[in-house]
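Pair request: fold both.
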Amino acid sequence: MRSPWTALTALCACFFMVMLDATVVTVAIPAVLADLGATLNEVIWVNSAYLLANTVPLLVTGRLGDRFGPKRVLVVGLVVFLAASLWCALSPTPASLIAARAVQGLGAAAMTPQTLSFISALFPPERRRAPIAVWGAVAGVATITGPVIGGLLVQHLGWPSIFFLNLPIGLAGLVLGLRLLPDPRGRRAVTFDTTGAVLAAAGLALLVFGVQNGQHFRWSPLVLACIGAGLVLLVVFAIGQRGPDRLIPRRLFADRAFGFANLVHAALGFATTAMFLPLVIYAQSVLGLDPVRSALLCLPMAAAAGAGALIAGRVRWDPRLLITSGLGLLMAGTVALAVAATPGTAPLELIPGTAVAGFGMGLVFSPLTATATTALPPDLVGAGSGVFNTARQVGGVLGSSATGVLLQVGLSVSVPKAAAEYAKFLPPRFADEFVERVSAAAAAAGEFSAGGPQVPAEWSPSIAEKVRELARAAFDLGFTNAARAALVLPVVVLVLGVIAAFGLPKAPRPARAPAAGTPVRQPAP
């Protein structure tokens, strides 16, 4: 075959699309609301459908690559993803867009584990640091630049353009992949764990659905039952994973470093989502930035993440040192953002924190991926890649949900407190009603407009205008305090990630040999 680096280009094109579409829709929410006449809940489901469909099948699709060959699964996933992207762009109704996003997520789930499988097939263990660094740079840059690209496209070309963008990138990746990627196959077909696949898919679907939508349904008994049932199914699934042909072979965790790497990856997914969500909302709701300008705050983070990933791939430092240093810088950047955030902060004052956080993320991706996958025997690369990517996705779901809960709780406490402070500037007869109306408007989330809460018609214009100004100031202060408090959560989770990172080896290990009698996949001649 030609240079494996040329083949890596096709893999990076596929992976870039998958990571980009996880965040690119964020800034398109107002445009979708207006153009399709969607409700806020329907737009939330546009993201949730992709997230669910992308997370749930990862364990299964990783094992499918072991059985049928990663090239076949990658190509099928890419075709499904491209068809669903066209469907998304042409969707005439919210229901159609939600269904298309779900199919798009399934295609993404088929592709993601195969990218790591191919890196293991294309490069020997001693040469994987650099390609994994490129893979990590693509992951970091695509995730962070998603809102930037989305904002620019939505503002100038409309929201369907964010899905049309996938077509040229995906078609180029498809042509390169068909021509340049080898076709690794096993000497015999891997027995597929159908029972395990059903249990894992059902358990993850129920758990992710419950966590992702718990706040929307106010943690109703039905939501809690979904979470409980999902956990039970996952426990049953874990108990049944015995034997070499299970969905998650126990040999994956014979090397405890693989288990610790997954814990760190889950913490990283949790922290990046939990940091990004309040930052973007704060930039738009408090600082008054439009979607493009708020997304541009992420450009320094994206550049720093790419630089960090490339540096991590070139230096020959202890990978554990790189990982812990990266997590530490991500913590420091998050703390800097929390300290800098005030109602009157200039947007440029946030750039140092975002740049430090981005550089830290970049340092973690490639050494963590190399540590998790380098020692895997060839017959477990697909399954290991599925587990590794599932850890990040589930961490991101939990981070998004937990941050949403904290923001809601923080608003319910901090906005009334701020309103009470600003009510002192009003005549006493207006104070109590001012606090009540501001608190109710904040609790209604999207119903709080820049004009402030509604005021009684009998109030004089001068009093009404003063009330609106004070209400805006109270909400800005209350939301800022809630966002700063929410940023404590990713810091705590990153501390746990650093602790888990100390369980990682100080140097990469050679790949373990397959168990006796286990077939080894070889590239087809």
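--- second member of the pair ---
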Amino acid sequence: MFILSEDSQRTQGRDAQSSNIMAGKAVAESVRTTLGPRGMDKMLVSSSGDVVITNDGATILNKMDIEHPAAQMIVEVAETQEDEVGDGTTTAAVLAGNLLGEAEDLLDQDVHATTIVEGYHEAARIALEAIDEQVVGSDVDDDVLKQVAESSMTGKGTGGLTAEALAETVVSAIRHVDGEDGVARDNVNVHTEVGASSNATEMIEGIVVDEEPAHDEMPTTVEDADISILDVELGVRTGDVDAEYSIESIDQLNTALDAEESELRGYAQTVADSGVDVLFTTDSVDDRVASFLANEDVLVFDDLNNTDARKIASATGAARVGALDDLADSEFGHADRIRTESYGGEDLVFVEGGAAAEAVTIFVRGGTDHVVDELERTIGDALDVVATALDSGEVVPGAGATEIAIADRVRSEAAGVEGRKQLAVTAFADALDIVPRTLAANTGQDPIDVLVDLRAAHESEGRAGLITDGESVEIADPIEHGVVDPADVKREAIESATEAATMIARIDDVIAAE
């Protein structure tokens, strides 16, 4: 009796577990060398020839053409980490892969998968308590936030800028959108533009949009600007029904042209009389209307997409108007200044100050597309972790120190766990060692020697991490060297890696339909 189709493929038992674990470990291994300040970059080439150069774990895994369902779960770990806290994606993926490796060893020793899962969950609980104990007691002030940002960016692509210089900009941006309800992370935008050194990167108190004036004679800068957003076409009205008009004389033609001209002038006059200084419209503006408005010194941008229109409305406080007759100053927004600049033939409009100051933009420059793309990813991660640290008010030591402390706590608690679960709890602690071991390997040190020294320093000093400063590498207190991470980054990495590893370890039957 056939239950499955003849084309179906089924893998069961130990073979299924081995296949899934191998796939998960392979994906984790692909990003392991990117971890830490000495992490290496990956070049990803798509089937169409597009090239991405990065050491951001989430980007690497997202761009890889992964088909194996178990391997895809590791990708989801990185995606979850990125969505929740914005950084630690490589740590989470590598930890998940090493948890699978430890689980495989336990399975080889005939420890049941359910026992491994229970032990891992118990160890994760202990690990989360250990993270709470590692939280640094001082207030998260601007100096600490700069350390968080710099720690996040060290080793990543920052062009000609230092991580320290970028950290100043990142913290200023996050502080700008910090309010009573917390950090409005969505109000911080990153806009990239090729054509200058990355040293030209700056923070704009406002927003930047890819638009150009509707007419060349319009002003390029407007101070103290009243702003309106129209969802209206400013052109000759056309009917929905096809119609033909018979013109038998030049007088009739002139009359028709005069009527059309009068209609367009009427539109322009209505806009000018409203007192608006800068007009944004999601529809088109006739060239003659644009010319009339240029003579009135009204700056106009037409054919905006909905995303840009919403961004401008949110930043300036302007209401979107659906009829020209409804144009009134009560619907206007405001900005201290609106200016247009040209970069390599591309026009940008800067909406700065006033109501727009609720939003900020980090205007990223770079010599090539690859540089600005990696800078955008790096700054985005730094913005996320600084926002996370500021919202939670909790940071922990970086440089592998927190993982050493967690592993030590889990090992000490393992003795109190009964039965074979104790083996899984101990294996969890061993899996945590992958972070300091990888940091050591990526700095050219011997992973075993460094791990032994880190454990000894942790026992004697209470806190020890692998500190990289230029070409030198030493074991020291990360807090004294300003290497810190948001506590939530560590928590999310533990939770998401544990969930993925336990889910994969429990699978003992894979049924694939052709």
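Observation on the second member. Residues 250-274 form the longest helix (25 residues).
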